[in-house]
Amino acid sequence: MSACKMKQAIKQLLLSCVLSTATLLSMAQVSYTGKPPTPAVGEPALAAAEIKTRYQNCELGYYHGAQPGKVRYVKDRYIWAVTPEFAKKFCMPQEFVSNELKGAEAVAFKLVPGGFGENCGFGGKAEVCAQGVDLRFEIYISRDVKLPVKNEVDFYYGRMHRYDSYSLIGHSEVTAQMGRDRWKTNPTPGAIPRFETNAFGLAGIQGDKVVWPITTLYLDEYRGKLYDGSIDYIAVQGQTGNFKNERRLKLEIKEFVIQMDQPKDKRQIKDVPLHEFAHVIHLPQAFSAQIQAMDLGEGTDWEALAKRALMSSGTDK
């Protein structure tokens, strides 16, 4: 083969490799659903050794949810978005992988009961009750990302999504003050937050600008230095029902972010360019679309609750 033909062959081979890589990336993006694979009825079960080889051979851990050929698994009710690097480290399903996720290694989402149970008495009517529903985001973020820290702790455990009998017994002012005094000298483990508890938020953006703040996301849980010490876990929650706003729908927002505010920044969210927030996590559009759909279908309907609360007693059945 002549030198000229050799160069042409090498050039063609390189072009083929580039196209193959682009095709694989395209396929990976198309396969994103955010949900674990659905086990097929009658699908042959993999042997334990094969499961270990295929799904449990990753660097830092492995995913316990459904995978093709696994008969025994943990039911996963989250919607996920993970980077290719995170998926490789933890043997995550390809359906979770998105190249659009920026600013975090992974984000898991689900709806959870909000507040402390079902509350009644809206509109002064004992029979008008509602159980709030919250958006819950669980963020896996590199320890190298420098977030504004309020307290140097590696564990914080809130109670936003937990409802128990303790929530039904209120404190008198005397016992509440006794509790505050005890906390000053001997804080309950996990009671001191690493970040400002209201520093996070969910917002719709267009370009470099927030055009619609959806909701404040309150810090509920923090665990630092997970796995090999390189990953932090941050769980935040905010109320549902704000995606139903008709003015927001008219804006046709496609891109959403989780933003963290700079400490002591008193500006309105809409007045802060994205690059001036303490941190911004760009959520994949397909991931965000599922959040909207779940909020619209299962979230708190504030308008319907208001109508029930304002309805005259004679028609409130």
CA distance, first residue to last residue:
88 Å
Number of helices: 7
Helix content: 25-40%
Shape: globular
For the largest beta-sheet, the strand count, sense and barrel status come to: 9 strands, antiparallel
Strand content: 25-35%
Give the mean pLDDT.
85
Secondary-structure element order, as H and E?
A: HHEHEEEHEEEHEEHH
Care to count the β-strands? 9
Q: Which radius of gyration do the C-alpha atoms yield?
A: 24 Å
Task: List low-confidence stretches.
Answer: 3-7, 9-30
Helix and strand content put the structural class at alpha+beta
Explain what this protein looks like in three dimensions:
This protein is α+β, with helices and mostly antiparallel strands and 317 residues long. It has a domain at 100-309. The chain is 27% helix and 26% strand. The protein is built from seven helices and nine strands, in the order ααβαβββαβββαββαα. Strands 1, 2, 3, 4, 5, 6, 7, 8 and 9 form a nine-stranded antiparallel β-sheet that branches. β2 and β3 (129-142) form a beta hairpin. It is globular, with a radius of gyration of 24 Å. The model is unreliable at 3-7 and 9-30 (pLDDT under 50).
